[in-house]
Amino acid sequence: MTTTYALLLRGINVGGHRKVPMAELRSLLEELGHRGVKTYLQSGNAVFTSGADEPDEAVRETVEAAIEQRFGFPVDCLVRDHGYLAAVAADCPYPAAELEGKQLHAFFLSGPVDEDRFAGLDRASFAPESFALGDRVLYLYAPDGLGRSRLGEVLSRPALFKGLTVTARNWNTVRKLVEMTG
């Protein structure tokens, strides 16, 4: 059985730090035995097919170890299959088709979160920005984009997601990853 995965790398190629060239990432994934490897943008998105019948977490652990060995620094990764990504897109509580890709973001999470984690946030004070939780994803609506989002800044604080790996993608990237894994 083959599975097509999206690999989401966190915090690479930002400001000239933690460089992971996409051509080298593609080669590394091919060396690990994955097929049909493609990358999308320079921010750490790869898609590949794996013939191994192993869970997403096992694939993630193998890739993280190989990246650290090859590039000399650890990189947190998330591995998600097409079914999961398609469900994230389908379950979006915001009118994604009516919004620009920069207005909607998905914060992919390594595990589930519940509303209790956000109890200290006065959501109304961030209006019209808002967020909603899904299956290991937080949807952020930021009408002026993430770069100008006060709520996005708060949601990017590591303490809020302590114990989890989190990496955000704009909705254009989410749509593209659904397409590429399909």
Order of helices and strands: EHEEHEHEEEHEH
Coarse structural class: alpha+beta
Number of strands: 8
- Arrangement of strands in the largest sheet: 2-3-1-4
Shape: globular
Overall pLDDT, averaged? 92
Number of helices: 5
Low-confidence stretches: none
What proportion strand? 15-25%
Residues in helix, %: 25-40%
Distance between the termini: 15 Å
**Rg calculated over all Cα atoms:** 16 Å
**Largest sheet, strands/sense/barrel:** 4 strands, antiparallel
Q: What's the gist of this structure?
A:
It is built from 5 helices and 8 strands; from the N terminus they run E-H-E-E-H-E-H-E-E-E-H-E-H.
Describe the structure.
By secondary structure, this protein is an alpha+beta fold. The protein contains 5 helices and 8 strands, in the order βαββαβαβββαβα. Strands 2-3-1-4 form a 4-stranded antiparallel beta sheet, with helices on both faces. Strands 6-7-5-8 form a 4-stranded antiparallel beta sheet. α3 packs across α5. It starts with a strand and ends with a helix.
Topology (SSEs and partners):
Elements: E1 3-9, H1 22-31, E2 35-39, E3 45-50, H2 56-71, E4 77-81, H3 82-90, E5 104-109, E6 130-134, E7 137-141, H4 150-155, E8 166-170, H5 171-181
Antiparallel strand pairs: 1-3, 1-4, 2-3, 5-7, 5-8, 6-7
Supply database-style keywords.
182 residues; globular; 24% strand; alpha+beta; 4-stranded antiparallel β-sheet; 5 helices
